[in-house]
Specification:
Blueprint (H helix, E strand, L loop, with lengths): L1 E5 L5 E6 L5 E6 L2 H17 L12 H10 L6 H19 L9 H13 L4 H20 L26 H10 L5 H10 L3 H5 L6 E2 L4 E4 L2 E5 L2 E5 L7 E4 L2 H18 L22 H15 L10 H12 L4 H8 L4 H8 L7 H14 L5 H5 L1
Antiparallel strand pairs: 1-2, 2-3, 4-5, 5-8, 6-7
Length: 375
């Protein structure tokens, strides 16, 4: 319901009730302006685009902090990335700004500035995504008519090409690396764990009798500290360990007893720090000080990442004819489309092998040749 009334000073007051039933008003010099205002308000409400005029005056920084509190259930590493994006990029530019003053053209200019500063497409997408989520919260609370960040064109990202090792190359790395990390290389390459999952393994997660590793925890370097958290996408899984890798694991656990000078505790880390074997392993320093020298000693490119051992596991499984669903479950992908997007290009290499197998199958079933059909 809306109405227009003339005030004692001769101006025109337009009244309406917002979506919560609260009475709102605005005064104009001309009646026609008051009418147009109410028509616009009515249309916005019908389209679901009405925004509270008072909330539109609130600043981005307030909503950013409100949004950040909603991320509490997320992984510590994810929240840390959000906090960095807010503090370094979003708040310095947008923090003091009223919500109602932000338009899409200005957001486009900001994206261009980030590009000119040399930020990678991936980082730009991350920063803009954080800002968009902040404004989504404001829009849902009727503090904005729409979100001017949504729909802004962003620079395209280029995926880092994974490196795939073959079994002999994995063996060369395992032989070249420090003896207390030989099991690390083999377990990652033949079971497909992520680097953070490898670092987060505790003794109780290795089932030596059943040859299984239970992946339920990660260890991530965040702001100079190692923080434990759930696996990516919270996908807890159990992965079978090949016997030869488990044999290496048994030898590794004996080595850990010698390193620590005591019996192993179920909560001890499977892989200790380079300097202090009782402390957890930092994946970044491991790559720099352990993995890269081993790659060079093995005659391989130092550009091979620790994460590429996980990619190697996928390629080895594909070469053995594994079904994509089996690979998805072993690697802990949230959806089979993730598996196919990452490794789909490896499957066509099996087409010739499969065609030959179909040929053998048909011949073995007693299919008649052309000459026999014509007799």
């Amino acid at each position: 319901m809306s109405s227009i009334e003339r005030t004692p000073n001769g101006r025109w007051r337009a009244r309406y009730r917002d979506l919560s039933g609260r009475s709102r008003s605005k005064t104009f010099d001309r009646k026609v302006d008051a009418n147009q205002y109410l028509e616009r308000i009515g249309a916005d409400m019908q389209r679901g685009e009405w925004a509270d005029p008072q909330l539109q005056k609130s600043i981005v920084a307030t909503w950013a902090e409100s949004w950040y509190t909603t991320t509490a259930p997320l992984k510590p590493s994810t929240r840390h990335g959000y906090r960095k994006a807010l503090n370094r990029r979003v708040l310095p530019r947008w923090g003091p700004r009223p919500l109602g003053s932000i338009d899409r053209a200005e957001v486009r200019e900001w994206v261009a500035e980030l590009t000119d500063e040399g930020l990678s497409p991936a980082r730009i997408r991350n920063v803009v995504s954080v800002f968009a989520q902040v404004l989504d919260l404001a829009r849902d609370a009727r503090a904005m008519r729409d979100n001017p960040v949504r729909g802004v064109r962003l620079p395209r990202t280029t995926r880092v090409e994974p490196s795939f090792l073959d079994a002999s190359q994995v063996a060369r790395v395992a032989n070249a690396i420090r003896s207390d990390y030989r099991f690390f290389v083999l377990l990652a390459a033949y079971c497909g764990l992520r680097p953070g999952e490898m670092c987060g393994l505790r003794i109780r997660r290795i089932d030596t009798s059943r040859r299984r590793v239970h992946v339920a925890e990660t260890l991530q370097p965040i702001s100079g500290e190692l923080i434990s958290g759930p696996p990516k996408s919270y996908e807890i899984r159990t992965v079978p360990i090949p016997q030869f890798v488990m044999d290496e694991g048994a030898a590794h656990l004996d080595m850990r007893v010698e390193q620590l000078g005591r019996p192993l505790d179920p909560d001890d880390w499977v892989f200790g720090n380079q300097q202090d074997p009782a402390e957890g392993l930092n994946r970044d320093s491991f790559r720099k000080w352990v993995m890269v020298p081993a790659l060079e000693d093995a005659g391989l490119s130092p550009k091979v990442r620790t994460h590429d051992l996980r990619h190697t596991c996928a390629s080895l499984l594909i070469s053995l004819g594994a079904h994509p669903k089996a690979i998805q479950e072993r690697l802990g992908h949230s959806d089979i489309s993730v598996t196919l997007n990452l490794y789909g290009h490896l499957f066509p290499s099996l087409e010739e092998q499969l065609t030959d197998a179909l040929d053998d199958l048909g011949r073995g079933a007693g299919q008649s040749g052309p000459d026999e059909d014509n007799e």
